[in-house]
Amino acid sequence: MTAFLALDLGTEGARAAVYSVTGSPMGAGDDAYPTRFPRPGWAEQDPDDWWRASVHAVRKALAQAGHPPIAGVAVATTASTVAVLDRHGRPLRPALLWMDCRAGEESALTARAGHPVLRYSGGSDAVEWLVPKAMWLARHEPETYRAAAHVTEAVDYMVWRLTGRWAGSRMNAVCKSNYDPRGAGFPHDLYESLGIGDLGGKLPDEIVPVGDPVGPLSAEAREELGVTGPAVVASGGIDAHLSLLAVGGAPPGRVSIVCGTSNAFVTEIDEPVFPPTVWGPYPDALHEGRWLVEGGQVSAGSVLAWAGERLIGRPRADLGGLIEAAAKLPPVDHGLIVLDYFMGNRTPLRDPRLRGAVLGLTLGSSPEQVYRAAVEGVAYGTRQVLDSFTEGGVPVDEVFLSGGIRHNELWLQTTADVLGRPVHLVAGDNLTLRACSVLASVASGRHASLVEAAAQYAPRVRTVEPVAAHARAYRDGYADYRAAGAATAEISHRLSERSGS
């Protein structure tokens, strides 16, 4: 019995799963790697750690599944997590993690470039993306940048480790490097105007649509991973963006929100709209002929972890009791507002210099109240993103949630309450891994298209209805959240400059 191998590189570690040809999980494994924060707003990882953790995770998954022959392999990673490598693929410095926001000045320069391809990204490149990070390297670490043969997304690095080929994901190229699949490809004239005219020579010279085969697993990778079978490697992509393939497909109006350390929002539309409050619309990034729209909260579950573990001081194992106590409190009347901009705002404000805040504290404020306010603040941020979709002409008819939110019932229910609409929680296994099984099935020839495979591998969902009695309190709380964000923006900017982030 053949199977598919899925690999997901997240913020904290690698996860692997083996799926049957019918979409049933057969085995899973995971392994962690560290993140280093050398300065405020900086975040780095070692690409060698990604591969080490991936090998361990895959071997665990294969052992649990009984070592079936593998027909197809696919990998997804965070984006833009950018590796800087020599011609042999060895790291020249730590990779810049997706949440690294050191390239704020460089991002601002892209907003003034006026290049037509930037229309696909709301007029500028976000601070997190590959192009501003490459600009920062060229300006601040010129010797390393000049020595780099490859400046590449993590997913493209992993595909190279799996196959020996430098084949770039079209999704990542379109969404993070300004690649125009309906025009001239990589915009070398834009790179030239931004002072990185040689960047095109450091990017993958072959761009492959999501789900298309790149090639078989290399002999070296087979031996390290312990894989048998044809093992055709698919072109992968961005973890959250691929989630649309794991919620049964992407009809207009269906939005997938992957809720974890950050929240990533993705949907597809048939005809493009160009509001400045979203990322995109990206042509042909996932499905040929359609436009992908993206939004995001750069800090979400990470805010809750900070509030519970670092501010309140509860060990992770004891957070369940804190969440349960906070859930017993009535919403909003604790008198606190938490702004979730701990690492800036991704969308709709597109401002990396915003900072988090806890407003309304008194000597009587309890840990449970602070934690509940943090949950509400993250939920307000989610509503702000979805409001920007609808206000910009992007329909929002169905909301699917997945990720770490499934482990926090307070966060889940509060999100439904603040949105004032039902949300569909994806049950069971990791959504990104399930999406990778869709890619692997298409690359192996098991399914003819992403649409066909996504329909067969649709997951089970649980619908969470909003509590009507909470509607007025959350309406008022959301209004205060928006007002507090506007009122503190100027001082946030000053504080971010003072801390050097």
From TrEMBL:
Name the GO cellular-component terms: cytoplasm
Which GO terms are recorded in the biological process aspect for this UniProt protein?
L-arabinose catabolic process to D-xylulose 5-phosphate
Instruction: List keywords of the entry alphabetically.
Output: Arabinose catabolism, ATP-binding, Carbohydrate metabolism, Kinase, Nucleotide-binding, Transferase
What GO MF annotations does this protein's record show? ATP binding; D-ribulokinase activity; ribulokinase activity
Q: Which SUPFAM superfamilies match?
A: Actin-like ATPase domain
Record-annotated Carbohydrate kinase FGGY N-terminal domain positions: 4-245
Specify the Carbohydrate kinase FGGY C-terminal domain's residue ranges.
256-434
Q: Which domain of life is it from?
A: Bacteria
Q: Does the keyword Hydrolase apply?
A: no
- Keyword match Kinase: yes
The Swiss-Prot or TrEMBL record describes its family as follows:
Belongs to the FGGY kinase family.
Q: What is this protein called?
A: Sugar kinase
- UniProt lineage: Bacteria, Bacillati, Actinomycetota, Actinomycetes, Streptosporangiales
